[in-house]
Amino acid sequence: MSRLCLRPACLRALAGFLVLALVYATVAQASTYVVYIPLDSSIYPELETLNGLGLLDSYLDEIRPISRVEAARLTLEAETRFDEQGAEKSDYAPLARQILRSLRHQLGREIRWLERNQENQQPTMAVPVQRAEVQYLFSSGERRALRTGPQSGVNFNEGTPLMPNNAGIPTDPGSNEVARVQGWAGFGGFLTGYGEGLVAGPFTRGVTGPPGSDSNRLRMLDGEAVVGLGNFALSFGREEMAWGLGHFTQLAQSDNAYPFLAVRLQNIHPIHLPWIFRYLGPFRFQIFFGQLDDDRYFSQPWIDGEIFSFKPLPTFEFGLTHTIMFGGDFNNNYTWMGFLGRATGLSTGSPIGANTNSRGGIYLKFYVPKLRGLQFYTEILGEDNLTKELPPIGRFLPFLAVSYQAGFYLPRLTDDGLTDLRLEFEILEPNYSIHSDSLYWTYDDMLMGDPLGPNASEVDLQLGRWFLKRYRTSLDLFATDRAPGIGTEQFPGGTKEYSMGSAADLWELPLMLGDRYGSLGEVRLRLAAEYVWHINYTNHDSLRTLALLSFSLTPGWSSLIWH
């Protein structure tokens, strides 16, 4: 049996695959610059609002991030729908106009490409600062954690209390300062390089960080080289990922952990499949292949996955997800054919010396336009864990440990679209994210899916309101519980943990800062508190609090262009 090299040099070898694509891209008939939008950008809630108002037909938000040029296309689509529907006379017209105006400011460069039919005819250019952001963050209270041992179960720590899906940005208890800068450059009309760096932690000292995490103050949050191949993008690097329907977090892949290094292939704009599959409607997909960290017994395992999202009807979306983790030190007793079998999931082999851990799921989303745009959705995710204590509740899926997420969203609680309501809940199975060996779903010591972890549940009720067509506020009331019995692991004397809390968020649409350069400024505020009984299955309680103040700037400077 051959032994695969699982060191960083092997991942660098994967970059050779990207080099081959560069050669092909030079003769591609159509290509563009692909810059992915950070998941904390206000562009996503703006598009979500337009979608809730019925102004988007092809927005498949189950795969994020999306590119700036795709967000520009969606803006133009919403403007067209606004005119075609005669929405000018609707109660929600003032809000829609304000959001469309904001998106035009944020995506002006890419919108001009599309309006002038120049998406695929761009010269070499550079945008040194696409967005800069500074944050002040204060947190207090004990952080959730679970450590079952180095060789089985799951080991993870919470990044920042009441701040999930924060891309694994390291913080310490007390005051923290975070500075982020994103920029990008495009070469030859087909190759894009983009990145976002950050400095995070207390101003006067370094970040302690949870065990096994990267506690460096200075790090590259995400960054990729992306090749435009017509309507497809092939990339290599770190990219934030969020898969699925959940608003507060996602089951399959979330942005809770630090982005991992991978090769990814996805379509930039939705497409229609050929033949009878055209009736599946607009289609988006993402496929990736990467490698995880060495903070586990099976050091640096491989991971790959795919998501497919369809919208066969204006009122119905569905999708499929699949991910598999395999290999790593002491778990690589296979040939190259065995490697391919595990990577594709077609032949997962024997758990002795070459185990795997898989996830697979399906999600459904329905729209009821006549009920003020009501949306309701559900997602089911299974894992391949199976123990004699686990009943076969997943007989209709190729997995047995099944977790659930469901909810509804009423985007127009009032006719003017200024008030919305959302209810969402999730039930996480005792085997969620764990495994009988160290192939558990974490990266850099944080969970890559739901940040609560196994054998837990949560319910969220959120009320949102727009003020002056510019300021968006929301109040989220939530309750959680976690039981100490996870999979085959039981904490002796452990006590069930449960909590209640609330979070209030305020942000404004990007505001023009003077007329000379057209720069945009944006402010965000988050205040949250939660009381946790028996935190981490112990006999003591914890009051957790969070305060976040953020200011971001999108400079209006012109791009540097070389003809």
Brief rundown of the structure:
The protein is globular and about 65 Å long. It is built from six helices and 28 strands.
Blueprint (SSEs and pairs):
Elements: H1 8-25, H2 43-52, E1 63-64, H3 68-84, H4 93-106, H5 108-115, E2 124-140, E3 145-147, E4 155-157, E5 174-187, E6 191-201, E7 218-229, E8 232-238, E9 242-243, E10 261-267, E11 283-291, E12 302-313, E13 316-326, H6 336-344, E14 356-368, E15 374-383, E16 401-410, E17 419-428, E18 442-443, E19 446-447, E20 456-467, E21 471-482, E22 485-486, E23 489-490, E24 497-508, E25 511-512, E26 520-533, E27 542-554, E28 560-562
Antiparallel strand pairs: 1-9, 2-5, 2-27, 2-28, 3-4, 5-6, 6-7, 7-8, 8-10, 10-11, 11-12, 12-13, 13-14, 14-15, 15-16, 16-17, 17-20, 18-19, 20-21, 21-24, 22-23, 24-26, 25-26, 26-27
Helix pairs in contact: 2-3, 2-4, 3-4, 3-5
The CATH top-level class label: Mainly Beta
The CATH homology group name = Capsule assembly protein Wzi
Low-confidence stretches: 1-29, 386-398
Choose one word for the global shape. globular
Structural class: mainly beta
Terminal Cα span? 54 Å
Per the CATH scheme, the topology name is Porin
- The number of E-state strands comes to 28
Number of domains: 1
Number of helices: 6
Q: Beta-strand level of the residues, as a percent range? A: 35-45%
Gyration radius, rounded: 23 Å
Largest sheet: 18 strands, antiparallel, barrel
